[in-house]
């Protein structure tokens, strides 16, 4: 039985391999402790963890984002009868541990470079949002992650949408989401596409301006003879 199956059965004692692969599953000791809270109770609130550890809520939210980035925690947002519930699923750490063990048994090198690069990009994206919006909650972080993983928006394009929102002084996730969907409808996928669209609009505006330029009145009456 795999670690993941043992976890689902409800009788898992934390395996030694969890600590042996600590550097892969967790980025810091605080991340691990926060993960333990969710392992024990998937409904525990981040504020409760912050109080129990005598830590600032910002630190706990950062740890949650790190766990999401490393693949050791899944955050699910549920909307039931108008209320929003957040579920923190810690079993992904065991699923990831199974992958590590299978790779070792088959003498297959564990390739993390591609994953690491993408997660580094996501962390950088989150930092960009925090610079403009302040502390990002787990709920907001999950929505931004969904733009990347489910809606397939490229991270550089999301940054451009954030910049557009800042320029328009409407920095909110709803507004940024609207920008992204509008761009997708126009076939915009990169900064070069945005520049191309702007050039097309400027050219169209110039043509319209020329067509509606000053008109000249040509008299149609009889010319006077000298």
Automatic annotation (TrEMBL):
Q: Which domain of life is it from?
A: Bacteria
Name the Pfam families for this protein. Answer: DnaB_2
Q: Where is this region: Disordered?
A: 199-226
Domain DnaB/C C-terminal per the UniProt entry, residue ranges: 127-195
Q: Which InterPro entries match?
A: DnaB/C_C, DnaD, DnaD-like_sf, WH-like_DNA-bd_sf
**PANTHER family hit by this protein:** DNA REPLICATION PROTEIN DNAD (PTHR37293:SF6), PHAGE REPLICATION PROTEIN-RELATED (PTHR37293)
**Protein family membership:** Belongs to the DnaB/DnaD family.
Which NCBIfam families does the record cross-reference, listed alphabetically? DnaD_dom
Q: Could you tell me what this protein is called?
A: DnaB/C C-terminal domain-containing protein
